[in-house]
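Pasting two entries for a bug report.
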Amino acid sequence: MVTIGMNYRVLPGKEVIFETAFKRVLDTMQQMPGHTESHLYKDVAAENSYLILSDWNDKGAFDTFVRSEAFAKVTNWGKEQILADRPKHQVFTH
């Protein structure tokens, strides 16, 4: 099992849009082979800072998701409309 920590900082005022987009991405993730569960957390000290923790059977399953067309569409839209800077991802293995 592998957990991916994805840190995002969104543009001020775009928090609700980001949260709504995450729900759509979660629907896609739940249909991907190897995905176990994912959760979105909001930093109480920084309103526009988020962490997504996503569990996968293995890193290969996550990599397949990241290379998918659905993920590319969301990330391209996010870069242009929502994100304040580039997301930071970290891999934790169990």
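Entry 2 (this is the one that rendered wrong in the viewer):
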Amino acid sequence: MSGLGSLLLFAVFFYFMMRFGCGAHMVHGHGGHEGHAGPGSGTGERVGSATEKDPVCGMAVPPDEGYTKMHEGRQYRFCSKKHLDQFEAEPQRYAQNKGGM
């Protein structure tokens, strides 16, 4: 019977941690919250965390949105599939318009 009690205690602890603790952002669908920085968490410093410009239209594209394409060792970010397709058709035309990385 003590095994069942331990299991129930663990289950209650797990529920509260997922509901209110470190797992809360996962349960509620948030990308992250203060104090939990890391790759893909949505907070803190990350490599390439600065907003980039779409080389086709010049629109600012946040790092977790849009489309990306590697071209000649550099990453380009696009606000739409249409602009990605335009870039792929003529990369030499748009690659020179890339903002600082």
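Dev reply: Rendering is fixed now. As a check, the viewer should reflect this: The CA atoms of residues 41 and 74 lie 23 Å apart.
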